[in-house]
Amino acid sequence: MSEDVLDRFDSIRRFSRGGQAAPHKPLLLLYALAQLKNEGAERITFNEAEKVVDPLLRTYGSFRKTPTVAHPFVRLANDRGRFWWIEDHTKTPSGDLLISEARERNLKAGFSEDVLQAFRENPKLIDLLAINLLDRNFPPSLHADILERVGLHLGQDEFEAVLRRKRDPRFRVAVLSAYYEQCAICRYDLRLNGAPVALDAAHIKMHSAGGPDEVPNGLALCSLHHKLFDLGVLTVDPKYEILVSDHVVGEWGRRLQDSLHGKPIALPRRDTDFPAEKYLTWHKRNIFKQASVQS
Ligand SMILES: [Zn+2]
Question: Would you say which domain of life the source belongs to (predicted)?
Answer without folding.
Answer: Bacteria
